[in-house]
Amino acid sequence: MPYLLHEIEITQPLPTLTLSEAQTGIGLIVRRRDRAIGFLMQSLAPNSVILPDTIAEWIAAEVGEKILQESIGDELSLDTKPETLPTLTVVICTKDRPEDLARCLQHLLALQGDPAAFELLVVDNAPSDQRTETLVASLPTVHYVQEPKPGLDFARNRALQTVQTEMLAFIDDDVAVDRGWLAGLRSAIAQYPEAAAFTGLVLPYELATDAQVLFEQAGGFRRGFDRIYYGQSEPDNPFYPCGSGIFGAGCNMAFRRDALLQLGGFDDALDTGAPLPGGGDLDIFYRVVRAGYPLVYEPRYLVFHRHRREYEKLRRQYWSWGLGFMAFVVKSCQTDPALRPRFYSLIRWWFKDQFRQLRKSFSHDRRVLPPAMVVAQLWGGIEGLMGGYGRSRNRIQQIRRQFS
């Protein structure tokens, strides 16, 4: 059953909210002075009326400490505001989803204002028709390039070869950028000019189906509401930086172009669709940090993601995450022997954790994934461990020959 998704600005009087007869809960995006500082979900009965006092209690319990932290930060004025910032191209790699792309571009164009703020590039990946090209042709400030070789990382590398700006920000076509997205990225770049990669917060665009609610209850793409600086070590993480899922999500990431070029770009054998529909973001985050560059997670660099609406598509998504993660691990064991023992430990821990999750999945805890999702991710991990990356490399070589 769907949830009501609502934004609350805590500096304004809190509203009274009413669920429809179809809604069985609520998701609240909590803002302070327009900045997202928290997210919470509550399961409720249909037609429930939620009074301001109830909302205030929820916010105090979930976000009270963050509100205090933000208040202190405002007083200290910690943000750096340089006179100049790196030039930026926002890249959207897409394939046959013009409706999603149109919504994504609408939010970006609202931010662009002065076209000099950033450039916009759409990479049309192995399209089956001209709908995307036609859409972009109607938008004079949006650039278009086609990448005929199918695969997300072929498209990302096409963008890297095409643009000349100092920074590239990659977002997926199924996200909508927040109104503070650009300011959040600029703030992080200004404060950490030595960083080569930036990731951001991802919140739900809607909670309209059971699958979307389930995914968000299990944690979604969220990495928290505090800025995190990732350097060369994390004393409390014995697998660092091998478990690179901690760094952020590939649907909202930015890089310095010179660093990407130095690293050779994205690995074309990852994020290829079948047989390997994932892992490219994990790989590039890991290689950035291993090359000695800091990576910064900035929650104000915020997008809203339209999660999989159908249960089966969500199940396949978990399978692809397991497959992509373990394929990345196998590849890294081959290419980075210095950290091979750490990766071996990570493999053992990951499978033990999957079985722990599977045992917990038979409980009725809404914060735990159901068995079908855990099994899908576990099975994907087994496939990835048993040659998924090698099979994908063989396929990529065939694609390169086909388009040479």
Key words describing this protein structure:
alpha/beta, globular, 404 residues, 9-stranded mixed sheet, 14 strands, Spore Coat Polysaccharide Biosynthesis Protein SpsA, Chain A, single chain
Quick summary:
This protein is an alpha/beta fold.
Explain this structure.
There is one protein chain. The chain has 404 residues and is of the alpha/beta class. The chain has 3 domains: 4-76, no CATH class; 88-309, Spore Coat Polysaccharide Biosynthesis Protein SpsA, Chain A, CATH 3.90.550; 313-403. It has 11 helices and 14 strands. It has helices at residues 52-76, 98-112, 131-137, 152-162, 181-191, 210-217, 257-263, 280-290, 311-335, 340-360, 371-403; strands at residues 4-9, 17-18, 25-32, 35-43, 49-50, 88-94, 119-125, 142-147, 167-172, 175-177, 197-204, 228-230, 252-256, 295-305. Strands 6, 7, 8, 9, 10, 11, 12, 13 and 14 form a 9-stranded mixed β-sheet that branches. Strand 6, helix 2 and strand 7 form a beta-alpha-beta unit. The mean pLDDT is 94.
Contiguous helical run count: 11
Tally the structural domains.
Answer: 3
CATH architecture name of the largest domain: Alpha-Beta Complex
The number of E-state strands comes to: 14
State which percent range the strand residues make up: 15-25%
Q: What percent of the residues sit in helical stretches (DSSP H or I)?
A: 40-55%
Structural class: alpha/beta
- In the predicted model, the low-confidence regions spanning at least 5 consecutive residues are none
Report the CATH C-level class of the largest domain: Alpha Beta
Main sheet: strands, sense, barrel: 9 strands, mixed
Element-by-element helix/strand order: EEEEEHEHEHEHEEHEHEEHHEHHH
